[in-house]
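User: For my dataset I need records formatted as: sequence, then structure tokens, nothing else. Please produce one.
Assistant:
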Amino acid sequence: MSRHDQSSSKFLLAAALGFVWLVGGSSLNWAQDAETRNWYKGNLHTHSFWSDGDDFPEMVADWYKQRGYHFLSLTDHNVLGTDLRWMKYDEIERRGGAEVLNKYRARFGADWVLEREATESTAYRIALRPLEQFRSLLEEPEAFLLIPGEEISDGVGRLPIHLNATNLVEELPPARGETVREAIANNVRAVAEQARRSGRSVMVHLNHPNFGWAVTPEDLAFVVEEPFFEIYNGHPAVNQLGDETRPSLEKFWDIANTLRIDRLSSPPLFGLGTDDSHNYHGVKGATPGRGWVVVRAEKLEADSLVQAMNRGDFYASSGVELRDVRFDPQANTLELEIQALDGVEYTTQFIGTPLDYDKTWPAATDADGRTLTVQERYCPKIGTVLATVTGLNPKYQLTGQELYVRAVVTSSRPHPNPSLPEQKEQAWTQPVGWEKRFREQ
């Protein structure tokens, strides 16, 4: 495929998904009409009894609503949950515990719980209701919204390739592929095709790339059709910090974005924070409340939220709250306002890759000179900390010598429900400053 054909394919997919690549302007020039937009907190990666979670979907949704979230997408594995399903009580109790059904009855009433008594040939069963049956119990205009979603759980050999599709109309089966890159691209295209047919704004993001060490930065960089990935996933088993040969997700992001912007002339990845919650009874496992996104949108509706995220008008968080994020493309400044908590200190790192990084990337080898397949050797300047600022109003003046700049805010407060050793609360903004290169081309 020629570069022209790749570019045409890329922009057709972007249009189908509603992803806005504002090459002629700035995708993050938020000052205009910012007064008409609101910040909405939500989670786009959550599980229930519909797949491998341990509670009823209504109970999961209620957990988030009661804790001040504005939106939630229930994203069970390879199922959209559009029909009634009967689940054996023994399996419900095994997963959720002896009190899970009593909690369900207490919250929504005995009349809401659909039961089928045991017979000689069938076990005692409880109904899992579809979203369309229970959303009216929980949704409130401009207060709480439920968005249909699915975790498309695919794989290449033993490598898990999982993507979350948000605001779907119909369930999508895994699209498959011979390679990791092909599998990601095929699933993104399947989501784009549904978006085109339905006329809805749909987004798709790659989940936990280090889970099973399935996806390398090069893989995700070269699938330019995929605009989103999880910079933070609260599941303890997703290898967030990398290892001695594979990058942390922070470094992963910088490598992939350097490749995209400089080698592929493509916009960067935007980073999400998610829970990937499975466990709602106690504090062990993949529990809720660890990571989320905060989206600046015109209203609390699915299309509006997805369109805002496609613009990059959101940040990811594991606890730090931002009052504002401003990128001024004329002044070339990135500025944050942090919501203060008493007795808590905040340190912001502005991170980016300078134009003079070393572009010769030899293959990685072990101590005996054998080539490693996990990643190339990258210049240490990729993902450089360009400035460190303390306080509530950090600001960075771009010099024009950066491929992009993003900000990471780290609180002095320990995370109340950590998934990582010695974890502190953080927030991540989206990369800016890259648009200028496209305008100049």
